[in-house]
Design brief:
Blueprint lengths: L2 E8 L16 H13 L6 E2 L8 E10 L7 H9 L5 E9 L9 E11 L13 E2 L6 H8 L4 E4 L14 E11 L4 E8 L6 H13 L7 H8 L14 E8 L14
Parallel strand pairs: 3-10, 5-6
Antiparallel strand pairs: 1-3, 1-4, 2-3, 5-9, 5-10, 7-8, 8-9
Helix pairs in contact: 3-4
């Protein structure tokens, strides 16, 4: 039976996250319902990762096995037509029957957007954290350097994180300007703890606001104490850009800030 890999893009603003939950509409439940209608059978949908409530995606990956044999166009066109306008299938491919989107992943790339101008922005309100106080860009970049490598990231994990251990590898962490009033924070790693990216961003913003020096980031990391780090950044600024696989089975997506 064919095993199909889907790459999804979505605006997570109006959803409780990827995973199906009793307290609201999820991305997973919408995709599952659309697949049931397209295939006229129940399939088990497996995702590479669970995005939180309000988090967006350009390259979420999900897989399922089906008895139906359809052209790939049926997924990125037909399935997309059955989905809400804020969810789309951007690519589909048949993969090996043992392909596992989570276990076979070699890493993930995320982007966090910050609007940094004196006035609020109606067009950025669903995709950027709006901070009206000027941020010290260079200090944020220096602080970010402390987090690249393999470390115990206990200081940046959520209190209710259920990961078996807090050790993670951050391959790159970059703070970039997008013009005079926009910042983007890009992070790539093998895996992430719950709220890890948002807690890192919240801490870097503390540095950008001048409340802490750049070296404070490294001190927080070494402390392994979540109470010493900055606040959790809002979910709506975060986007899962790409899930990485050795075979290149996930298509490339823009990883830089669109100018």
């Amino acid at each position: 039976m064919p095993r199909i890999k889907l790459v999804l893009e979505y605006d997570g603003t109006d959803y409780v996250g990827w995973q199906t939950q009793a307290n609201g509409r999820s991305i997973e439940s919408c995709v599952q319902a659309a697949l049931d209608k397209l295939l006229a059978e129940k399939v088990q949908l497996e995702a590479a990762t669970r995005t939180d409530s309000g988090v967006h995606a350009l390259g979420q990956v999900a897989c399922f096995t089906t008895s139906r044999e359809l052209p790939m166009k049926a997924y990125w066109m037909g399935l997309s037509d059955l989905l809400p306008r804020d969810i789309a299938i951007v690519d589909a491919a048949e993969v090996a029957e043992d392909f596992d989107p989570r276990r076979d992943s070699e890493g993930k790339r995320y982007r966090y957007l910050i609007s940094n101008r004196k006035a609020r922005s109606p067009t950025r309100r669903r995709s950027h954290w709006e901070i009206f106080q000027p941020l010290d860009f260079d200090s944020m970049r220096r602080g970010a350097e402390s987090l690249v490598g393999e470390y115990d990231f206990s200081a940046f994990q959520a209190a209710d994180c259920q990961a078996s251990h807090p050790r993670r590898t951050v391959r790159s962490l970059e703070v970039e300007r997008g013009g005079e009033d926009e910042l983007a924070i890009f992070i790539e790693g093998t895996a992430f703890l719950k709220h890890m990216v948002r807690n890192i961003v919240g801490s870097l913003v503390e540095v950008g606001r001048g409340r802490r020096p750049p070296e404070w980031i490294g001190q927080v990391l070494q402390s392994r104490d979540r109470t010493l780090a900055g606040p959790t950044a809002p979910a709506h600024g975060l986007t899962l850009v790409e899930v990485l696989y050795a075979s290149g089975s996930a298509p490339a997506h823009p990883f830089r800030l669109r100018r």
